Amino acid sequence: MTKGLREKVFLLLGIFLSLSLSSCGWLAREQTQRQMGHAAMQAQIELDAGKIQKAIDIQKEIYQKYPQDPTVRSGYIKTLESMKSSGDQAFERNDFALAGNIYEILAKNWSHFADFSQSLSFNRNFLEKKVRTSRCLYVEKQVRAHLETGDFQKALDIQEFFQKYSQDLTVRNGYIKTLESIKDRADQAFERNDFALAGCIYELLLKHISFATPLGRRLSWDREVLTKKIRSCKKILFENGLEQYRSGDLNKAISIWKSILAFDPENQEIKRTVDTTILQSKNLEKAK
Question: Which of 258, 282, 279 lies closest to 270 in space, CA to CA?
């Protein structure tokens, strides 16, 4: 083979190799683009379905595969911003349960996108604060609903949330506001002579609150106030029942005395009085 022919062969081989490498690179980029497009589409589908964690997992997987690809990072950021916007929109329409869940999922996954967190419009502190605020507003909304229906037990059962975030000023103030509101309902019942309801609410508060804690000491009333109110409710109800008994309306007397047992179920004196009166009522019926 002549020197000129060899040079031509090498030249052709070089061109072929260059084209092959270029083609491989193009195919690799094309494959990456397809994977990114598919991942973005799947993430959006999960996001639209409300599956926030699943959407993050999809973006996280493709990002771990191509951490240096600007398009992958851009898609990841876009998904996260979309999630945060969904949380904001839920918050604005007072859907605090949904908003809190979205913010919480983003906060829990923060370590997975911390390396590009500077490119996000929000930070971890913002998310954690939003979680607490959303939860607090959600609980307050639930408490108001329970108060409106008179379900004071359920209103107090939500206290676990307040205890979890007891160091947060907003949460703590919300809890105090709830307790004061429940106490006001008891006072209103007392003032309109509904001593059975008032006694039940006072007793619930007495059982649920630890007045030795800093939170308990911030209330406008204490254990002694509740105890006195409960004692007054029992005394008035007992006297009202006695008045009905003396007038001959034994059934009414029994009904009134039984209402005491609703908030003082271990009161043996009232139990004996009720049992004795029921027996008298039965004997009177037989004698007719």
Answer: 258
